[in-house]
What does this fold into?
Amino acid sequence: MNDLSLTHALNTWATQHDGYEDGFSAYAVASEPLFLLALVVLFAVVWGSLRTVARRAAVAAGASAAVALTLGQLVSHLVDRPRPFVAHPHLIHLFAPHAADAGFPSDHATAAFAIAVAVLLRKRLWGLIALAAATLLALSRVVIGVHYPVDVLAGAALGAATALLLYLPLLRALTDGLADRLGLVLDRIVSGIAGAGRHSHPA
It folds into this structure.
């Protein structure tokens, strides 16, 4: 089964199963804020013994996604592959509004797998959950007609490779150092707010 036929098969299946299609469409659209929220939670909400590793994972994930997306834009302009709903409008049904820009590699898959692998390298359980979410996202982008399977596979490979690259000792030291410094800033802000609250409500 080639790239187009697999895309068509998944897309057609979704048109015949409205309940699943709604879920895939909703997740594909909401994925960006969900992954961003996950990074915010890792950096700002996780405390206790896991605070340092969570903050380092969040910063490394953000950096990996940023670098991978930049590289992905370069590849996208070079390849300039039309999306399936653009190239085959009579075969592929578009389930959610989307710009008719180049689709290779998938930005969503690139960012999601960069984040997931960066987290996996630092905390296995969190990373496995993120990988499952990233895989579902990649599948969703194909189902709703905005990407071919090769688009999301290329994005996944690019994101994962970038996260692995930034895990090399020298680069990891840079992201860990940045996370630690940003964490100190956050700690001071939280302490300042807590102190102000105590002073405004004297015993």
Q: What stands out?
A: Residues 105 and 151 are 5 Å apart (CA to CA). The longest helix spans residues 169-200. The chain has eight helices and no strands.
